[in-house]
Amino acid sequence: MKKLLVLFVLAAISFSCSKSDDSVNVTEAKLVGKWYYKTTKVAGETFPYDDHEACGKDYIQFREDGFVVYGDVWDCELFEDVAGVWSISGDKITITEDGVPQTATVTTLNSSTLVVKYKDDYFEDGSEVTIVVTFTRS
Hints:
Elements: H1 2-11, H2 28-31, E1 33-42, E2 45-48, E3 59-62, E4 67-74, E5 77-89, E6 92-97, E7 100-109, E8 113-120, E9 129-136
Antiparallel strand pairs: 1-2, 1-3, 1-9, 3-4, 4-5, 5-6, 6-7, 7-8, 8-9
C-alpha cells in the first residue's frame, strides 16, 4: 500500500501552470538528496504520512546522476526502486517513468522542506483536485 501511495503521488503528477512572480527557483543543488514524506493535502484536507516505521522512513531520492529512487521501509526492511529520471525547469520538477513524463510545481524548496503541487483525478471520479505533498529532510 505504501509503495502504491508513493508511486501514485509522484507518478500521477500532471499539473501545468504559467509561471508567476512568486515561483520558486529549483536548482539541482537544492533538490538532490533524500526527501521524506510528511503530509499530503487533497481537496483541502491534510493527511499526515503515518506509514513511517520506528526503524526507518519512506522517501523519494533525487540523485545527482538524474535518477529517482523510491525508498520504502516495510517491516524494518528497506526496499529501493530506481523508478525513472528527473529534470527541473524553473519551478517545475518532471519525473519520467516508463517513458511517461509527469510534472509538478514546486511551491517551497529550502534546506529542510520540499512542497510540490499538482492536479489529478485522485478520487477517480472524472474531476481533478489539487494535491499538495510536503517532504522533509529529516
